[in-house]
Every structure is written in structure tokens, then in C-alpha cells.
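Catalogue entry: protein

Sequence with per-residue C-alpha cells
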Amino acid sequence: MDRIVQKAHFFRRAGFGATLDELHSDNSPEKLLSTWLNESPAINVPAPLPIVKKGKQEQSREMWHWLLKQMLSANNPLHERMVNFWRDRFVVSLRKLGRAQLLLDYEIRLRTYAMGDFQELLMQVTTSPAMLNYLDNAQNRAGKINENYSREVMELFTLGQGQYNEKDIQEGARALTGWQVKLRPEMGIADVTFVKRRHDDGIKNYLGHSGKLSTQDVVEILANHPSTARKLAVDLWSTFAYRDPEPALVDRLAQVYKQNNRSIRAVVAAVFNSPEFYSDKAYLSRLKTPLYFILSSLRQLQIEADSDRVLGDLRAMGQVPYNAPSVKGWQGDQGWLTAPSLLTRINVAQQFTKEYGDDGGFKFNPDRYSAKDLVTVLLDGNSDRLEKQFTGLSKREIAALILSSPIYQLV
């Protein structure tokens, strides 16, 4: 890869694409990676959302506006990508929860622990009001066991399919009993308490461990399980590089996880520092999700956007944050390749770049760019060859065509 292509590839994977200034800056991917990995981004927590003051729909909109602002204005795009990674892995949804307050608390937990110790992150997720309600562990108590979270935390969040049996689900559910969520609507928060009388304090046999196991024990066992290390390695590599990583590569990343006390940061660093990350196999190997397509378009062309319009486009494209259809999250690459979804992307590209868009929620300034600049920032260069294809077109038209092109849908 030449310098521009390498840098563009890095920014697509570590963030939501590079601006023209970022492509031409002196900062190398190595330097940027080191900076982003080692800084702790400030978490700009919005004010609580008291139920008594606003309706649920307005609260949800306010939360989404805050969330979009964080993603579009982030100085550390890698941290945003990691928060998005966990949002897609540890799924909770407004469709079931119905309260933006729970999601705001959950989002702050993900932001705080996104790059830390996986065991700490898993404990925060497990005991969050959002997850306790979403996967019914708040209803799980001694004498009336609910196995939902016990099953999903192993299958989707840690071990993966085939690494546990029905007895592990049952025993894990017993260990996870005792948690209760109490909403405090007047303050816009929810309290989580451990109620001892609701906890099954008997002996459990879980994944080869025996004793009076608790939630903390379950989290520790899962976070330190070899299958969790391998699943996290596969999930991170598939997100940031390419699908179906080679077994030796998975082993290497899993070893980093174990040798660094479950450090998410260490595994992410190993992913981006791997020679395979810059291979032809990784380059433009994934399809942009609707959320990624919108964020990259707005960010790369520095388009000012009205949050309500962005939210409307995300709804039209079928991917509003915290609104996944099931605990399994959003569909994979192929699921976004439908005629209606691709047509919507073309329409959105027109909205972003056409002059009438300046009065419709989006402000794009084409005077910042030459035709060569647009090809460079959106298509990694090849300017001399591609520029000729755009002869006679305005810069707005060029931008719209590139955003609508098949190659721009890849990351």
C-alpha cells in the first residue's frame, strides 16, 4: 500500500474515515494509534432525563442526538469505534426497555470500560439496569430461575456456541440470582441492588467450577475462559480487519489477551500492529453499515448536519443505535445488500451534497475541494485516472456520485 492508501485504510478501520487534512498530515498511523490507545477520552455526560419532564419519545431523541454528537465530533475515533463495537456485541434495545435513562447509563458504562479489563466491562454490563431488564436477569431469583441471561452471556458475549451445555445454563442462572432494579423516574436514574434473600446460595457446578458461586464468580470464570479469549480475538479481527481470521492469528491474539490480564487495549493494539492488517485481504473487505455510511460521509466531507435529519436517515436505512431487532444485533454484511437499502444510500448521498440540502439539514461546502481532492479523500487517490471520468460535473455532483458508488460502500 502507498502512503495515502495505507492512511485511508487505517482511518476507515480505526475511525469513520479520514478528512483531507488528516490524509495529508504528518501524523503516521503508528503515532495516531499510540496516541488514541493511551489517552482516556473525557466522557461528556449529559444531564439526567427525568421522566416527569418529558415524554419517552422526546427523551429517546435527546439521547440519540447526544450519541450522534459524540460519534461525529470525537477527537479519538478509535474509542468511538470500540464503544460501537461493544454496543453491537452487548446488545440492549429501546424496543424492549422503553426508557432512554437506562440506555444512557449503559452507554456511559461502555464508554468508561471500552478499552479496559474485559472482566470489569463484563461485570458492568451484567449488573447494569439496562441489561438486567433486557435479558430478564432482574426477574431471576431463588426458586424462580430465569435462564435467559445465563444462556446469552455464554453464547453471544463470551464463550460462543458449543462451549457449554444445558447444565451450565441452569447452574449459571442460579449463580446470577439476586439482582433487582428500581426505577427512580423523578431523578431520571435507576438503582440496582443485590437482595440476598433473592439469591440462590447453594452449591453450583459451572463450567468445571464448584462452590457457592455468585455473579462475580460467573463473570470471572467467563472472562478468563480460553474460549472467551478466542471469541474476542475473532470478533475484534473480523470488525477491524477481515472475516474468518486464520487459526494461527486467532491463537496469537488470544495469547495477547491472556498475557495482558484480559486487556482489551492490548488486543486492539495487536490487531492494528499485525502485518495482516494492511494486507490485500483486509483492504476494502467489509461493507459499511448504514450508521457507518452516514458517519463516514458526514465526517470525511465535513458536512454540518441536523441531528433530527440524521436520525431520520438512520431510521430509513434501518439502523438506529440501541434499536437492534434482537439480542443477536444487526444483520451482517450481506443483510445490508438489498435493492431498497442501496437505493436509500443513493438518496441520502444526494441529500448530503445537493445545494437544496443546505436548507434541509445538511451543509456541504464544495469550495473546500477540487475534483482531485474529492477523489483523494473518498477513494484513496487514483486521482489522475478518475478525475477524467468527472469532466463537466460540478463538485457537488462528483461528491454525490462517489458517495453512491459501490466502492464507497466498502470499508
